[in-house]
Amino acid sequence: MNEKNSLGLDYCFKDHDNPLDLFEEWYAEAKKTEINDPNALSLATVDENGAPSVRMVLLKDFSVKGFVFYTNLNSKKSVDIKKNPQVSICFHWKSILRQIRINGKVSNVSDAEADTYYNSRGYGSRIGAWASDQSNVLKNRQQLYDSINEYEKKYPDKNKVPRPSHWSGWCLNPNTIEFWLDGKSRIHERLKYIKNNNNWNKVLLSP
Questions:
Q1: What is the pLDDT of residue 3?
Q2: CB atoms within 10 A of CB 91
Q3: What positions carry a catalytic annotation?
Q4: CB-based contacts of 146: which residues, under 8 Å, 6+ apart?
Q5: Residues 6 or more apart from 199 whose CB is under 8 A from it?
């Protein structure tokens, strides 16, 4: 039996009024089947000249406030965001043949949130946040290794590595969220949520 929701879509779309509820369910399914990093997402930004740039980052939290990832605040992605906080992200899970695209505006997480996540990271990752001058040119790999060694000497206590001021998180507050399900003969199923004055409206999209 091929179950459908009230819109005629596959039952996996459910009938949620809030897209975050549907995201949570799809994400839970992806975590059961994706071999590596079900929290991986592509992040697209645009620089001051209108040139796009896309890269993979990892989702570290999501809530009614939005979708959170962490990075160096001097990185290419952060420089772009400071110029234009409108970004787009995309999750693609091959194992369940589903995709979610999210657009919205990005803002900084609080220092308390950044501290909590930073302190949950492994020692090497915390040292790396200090040692890597992210997105800038390296003369050679040894330059990076020397920087790592320098900060390991500076912070030998694995329990006492402070968070660099240039390292924090960004939170994407969504204004549209689109759910996509692979279909036979490329007749995919698409459901888009659009935020309007803090309320969500749903529309179907052609494949």
A1: 84
A2: 23
A3: 186
A4: none
A5: none
